[in-house]
Amino acid sequence: MRMSELVGKEIININDGLKMGMVGDSDLVINPESGEIESIILPNRGNLINLWIDRQKLVVPWEAVKKIGREVIVVDLDHTNPRLHNYSY
To answer: CB under 8 Å to 36, separation ≥6 — which residues?
Structure first.
């Protein structure tokens, strides 16, 4: 799959139906040796005040991607999963 095929697709969590963001507003972590996608880094969607103060990111492991459709990417995320991390940049 090419990056151009992912751009513009909305990422939706199957667990709660939350629209998490869109590929293009996000970053991809790619393994330089294998060329495989390891994770998607999404901007944390907080309120307007948090947008300016707190620049955390949500890391979605590629293993959480369950389906890539024509318009959306469906992920299976449990927010208690210890593999999900918030990073500050």
So the answer is: 30, 62
Q: What pTM was estimated for this model as a whole?
A: 0.70
- The secondary element (H helix, E strand) that includes residue 21 is strand 19-22
Structurally, the chain folds into a number of domains equal to 1
- What are the pLDDT digits (tens) for 25-70? 778 889 999 989 899 888 766 544 454 555 567 888 999 999 999 9
What CATH number does residue 46 fall under? 2.30.30.240
Domain extent, residue 61, equals 3-88
How far apart, in whole angstroms, are the C-alpha atoms of residue 46 and residue 49? Answer: 8
| β pairing state of 72-75 and 10-13 | parallel
CA separation for the pair 85, 30 (Å, rounded): 17
| Residue corresponding to tokens 């024509």 | 70
